[in-house]
């Protein structure tokens, strides 16, 4: 909820790599951008001690409303979006760092309705998606015919459910792990395909079931992640982009994505009552 001052109060839910980056950035540079840290919550509160000022640590997430935030950003796990998304939107704008949660059509619809009801914005960060606004414009103009996204990473960078990649060996090369709809892919790799989820939300006419995705394990990719996007429009129109994002071995998130999240946060200034890709 708005606080009546020019400074936006930000709540950060999750203190993994992206959460830590955002918290440090707000504490260091926030005042220059009109941002103030209202709270930080993490599933393991011990991780916050000594790193976050004690008065900013929120022990119980159910009491988030007491901190009177303008924007709450989730950067931890899709389950938080499912459990708290509606409550967050009743009090503030909500930046969803795990948009794979919205592959659940019921939750997707409820969050959209809540944004409209409370005149809040459900913000979706671009993350590692290149050209998201262009995809959204094509979608809104009825010109988007097909969308395909391939994400290739070193196998140590994937966090998959089940035993999809339990048998990988160094030097094995390239292996396609899954190819199909993003709706099917999100439950398999909820922490790895938020870029695809953002694209599916931008491509609303196609949706999660219509956007196609592929995840590839490649032991040659020891220094970066690769995201390829293929967009198809009318009369043979097409765009193919390839984005290489430097990343350490084992890192779910590429280096450039951290600053992308910061830039997304800076866009969270209104746009109420709708879903907004930023």
UniProtKB/TrEMBL annotation:
TM helices/strands, residue ranges: none
Pfam family, one: Asp_DH_C
UniProt GO MF annotations: aspartate dehydrogenase [NAD(P)+] activity; NADP binding
Residue ranges occupied by any Aspartate dehydrogenase domain in the UniProt entry: 173-257
InterPro entries, per the entry: Asp/hSer_DH_NAD-bd, Asp_DH, L-Asp_DH, NAD(P)-bd_dom_sf
Domain Aspartate/homoserine dehydrogenase NAD-binding residue range list: 14-125
An example Gene Ontology biological process: NAD+ biosynthetic process
Similarity comment: family membership: Belongs to the L-aspartate dehydrogenase family.
UniProt name for this protein: Aspartate dehydrogenase domain-containing protein
